[in-house]
Amino acid sequence: MVLRRFIRVWSGQTVSALGGGLAWYAITLWAWQSTGSATVLSTLLLVNFLPGLVLAPFIGAHVDRVSPKTLMLWCDGLLATIAFVLVVLYSTGQLSLWHLYAVGVIEGVVETAHWLAYSKVVATLAGQDGLARANGLVSLTDSMAAVLGPVAGGVLLGVFDLTGVLLIDAASYLIGLLTLVAVGVPRGAPEPSIADRSSISVSIEGARTGLRFITARPALRSLLVVFFVMNLVVAMGSVLTVPVIMMRSGDDAALLGLVTSVGGVGGILGGLSASIALHRVRRVPLILVSMIAGCLLGTLPTAIGWSGPVWLAASFCAGFVLPIINGAYQSLWQSAVPLDLQARVFGVRRTVAQLAVPLGMAVAGPLTDRLAPVMDDGFLAKTFGTGNAGAAGLVLGACAVTGALVAAVSAASRSVRGADRSAAMPREEVTTA
Q: What are the TM regions of this chain, as residue ranges (predicted)?
């Protein structure tokens, strides 16, 4: 019965995620068509990503003090309102870039609060026995939004223009909101009153509480370090995959699109697999084995491959393991962290792990440029190619080997293996200062 309630919430939130994905892609595509500036696109991505990432530990302090269902309702309602405002601005010819930048910042922060609240709702409704399946479905949603959002966004932008896409976006958030309203979600233990304390002090104290929880637990701390390193190499790899394929295929954009689509299909099938079978295996070994498989069967063949079939197979493998890793990782943390602390702990966890993403993206290009002059000949040039293409392949291959080694070494680490035991223990209550 409880898992049935989660399915109802998940279905509505899946619709919202798909609507948000297609709308954001359509917005970025409209910005590109309007300006032709790559700088504008990168700025839009940064203002949407960084504020929520930096503020996550402080947002978590407030998420733990309110009903997660109520907060999700406010977030869905606010996101629908933003979509309607953009419709008015676009329809009256007043939509400009600064509006999109402002929306990017607001939506990034709101979506962070929504994710923290949704994580608590999943843990509440699914229960310990249903966490693995529930997070497999959440990972499936992420994969579907990543694949179907750009496809649907591009098609709908051509059919309805931006107004139609934004109206669909608003409707999707309202569907998520109405679905959630109809489902009862336990409130949990109320937090102490904060009437006599400033919002800033509450935020700082909450971030400290989340950080203390993680640092006091070697298993969770070690696993978080592993994910930081993996996010770093994955971010570098994501930057370099496109130039490697394009330079080696003679700028075959159709092949690149096919490779990307096959990776998306792999992600959807991986999400389905996670929702069906994730509860049957131990999570830490599954995470580490999937990481190794993703690196050696996904990233490495892309780095050394020179043909479409190799890249297609590699993309499928890389996409397939991602929702399995994320679903197992999320359910492990939800099992190990008391419900009344999850937003504070998860806010810190999110910031630490994902700070590696902009760092990896910033490092990948300059490192490739530095290595290009030494790729004119020799063994490495025969394997990866010469010039910029060879350097990009070399760095991509190094990312794959590094990721696989980190996962393999972690498998031998007692502290990392202990994360499964930490998650199996009762979720102790933790007092906060």
A: 12-32, 38-59, 71-92, 137-160, 222-247, 253-272, 284-304, 310-329, 350-368, 388-412
When the pLDDT of each residue in the chain is averaged and rounded to a whole number, the result is 86
Burial class (CB in 10 A: 0-12, 13-18, 19+), 348: buried
CB 243, CB 392: distance < 8 Å: yes
Residues lower than pLDDT 70 in the chain? 1-2, 187-198, 278-280, 420-433
Is 425 strand, coil or helix?
Answer: coil
Amino acid at 79: L
b/e per residue 264-273 (b: at least 16 CB within 10 A):
bebbbbbbbb
Residue 411's Cβ-count burial label (10 Å; 0-12, 13-18, 19+) is middle
Are 121 and 343 in contact by the 8 Å Cβ rule? The answer is no
The answer to whether the beta carbons of residues 37 and 153 sit under 8 Å apart is no
What pLDDT, on the 0 to 100 scale, is given for residue 197? 62
* pTM of this structure: 0.87
Catalogue all structural domains in the chain, each as residue range(s) with its CATH number: 1-184 (1.20.1250.20), 217-426 (1.20.1250.20)
Element (H, E) at 398: helix 387-411
Under a CB-based contact definition with an 8 Å cutoff, are residues 51 and 338 in contact?
no
Say what the pLDDT of residue 198 is: 67
Between the alpha carbon of residue 254 and those of residues 159, 246, 251, 260, the distances in Å are: 22, 10, 9, 10
| 71 touches 187 (CB < 8 A) | no
d(CA 355, CA 262): 28
Measure the CA dihedral 331/335/337/340, to 10°.
Answer: 100
- Residue 191 has a pLDDT of 56
* Measured distance CA(68)–CA(74) in Å, rounded: 10
Provide the token pair at 394.
């070399």
* CA neighbor of 234 nearest in space, from 325, 366, 332: 325
Predicted local distance difference test score (pLDDT) of residue 250? 82
